[in-house]
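User: Hi! I have a protein structure encoded as tokens and I'd like to know what sequence might fold into it. I'm fairly new to this, so please keep things simple.
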């Protein structure tokens, strides 16, 4: 499990703390992690597995955000290998917080 708010730089902490008052007035009632932040780890994993060049040339990622991750929540990221057709490998992506689904999606990349 990882913290929902990614990054550990002072800038990230400052940005999150200054947004707290504004975010508290939204329907979420607190700071939330934007959807792309929840997917950032997948890109890193796929680059690590297949190489940055292969991912940047042939990799694709699509996702639907179902529910937000709130500041400080820990989330679970799943990368599930799917079918390989020819040279194209596919994966299913799931981001959860306990039983709550936050995002679901897919990724694909051409194998060498």
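Assistant: Happy to help. Inverse folding works backwards from shape to sequence: for each of the 112 positions I chose a residue that suits the local structure. Here it is:
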């Amino acid at each position: 499990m990882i913290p929902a708010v990614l990054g550990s730089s002072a800038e990230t902490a400052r940005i999150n703390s200054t947004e707290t008052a504004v975010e508290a007035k939204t329907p979420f009632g607190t700071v939330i992690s934007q959807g792309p932040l929840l997917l950032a780890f997948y890109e890193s994993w796929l680059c690590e597995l297949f190489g940055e060049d292969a991912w940047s040339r042939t990799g694709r990622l699509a996702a639907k955000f179902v529910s937000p991750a709130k500041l400080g929540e820990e989330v679970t990221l799943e990368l599930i290998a799917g079918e390989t057709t020819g040279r194209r490998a596919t994966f299913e992506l799931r981001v959860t917080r306990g039983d709550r689904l936050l995002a679901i999606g897919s990724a694909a990349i051409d194998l060498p």
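A useful reference point when you look it over: Confidence is low (pLDDT under 50) at residues 1-17. Feel free to ask if any position seems puzzling.
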